[in-house]
Amino acid sequence: DTEVTQTPKHLVMGMTNKKSLKCEQHMGHRAMYWYKQKAKKPPELMFVYSYEKLSINESVPSRFSPECPNSSLLNLHLHALQPEDSALYLCASSQGQTSGANVLTFGAGSRLTVL
Amino acid sequence: RKEVEQDPGPFNVPEGATVAFNCTYSNSASQSFFWYRQDCRKEPKLLMSVYSSGNEDGRFTAQLNRASQYISLLIRDSKLSDSATYLCVVDHTGGFKTIFGAGTRLFVKA
Question: To bridge A29 with a disulfide, which of A37, A93, A108, B8 should be the other Cys (CB 3.0-4.6 Å)?
Fold first, then answer.
């Protein structure tokens, strides 16, 4: 069982809908990540939160809005998405060291389909 | 040039074979290196970290050559269960920008 829990596992939404993806970890990790993965492609970094503050935004369109309510939770708010945004969205966490190895622990992902 | 480049796949090998994957990275300031494994429709999972002195974990051996900016993974005595995509991962120093290579698919056949 993964130590990073993502909900929902599957989500189908229309282009006018507003939905959210949720991620939770209880490993005491202080860095949390959102990645997007299309079929047969590697994960692409979207956002990184370090100690509950946004530290990296990889020029992600504003229709994706991250939120980190506390050190254990990470949300990704979705609004006015496009069909090309359909993908597997992976949440990950790491200890949050700025030096040394930052090993990522991934959740099982939320598979999003935009109609 | 991509920040992390891997051997194109797929690799199709029989059980018991030895297979090697290569990876190069472009940022000489990179400090941490990893191999992750991803099964079909599953999340990536850490296979092993890669250290300058090289490291071994059972049938798996990882090597790092900083001068050539090159990482390798050797799998000995391949098992059917080794079939997966192997992702080379590089972490830039001083931050959390973890970059994944495109991955190499391995198929081990009986």
Answer: A93
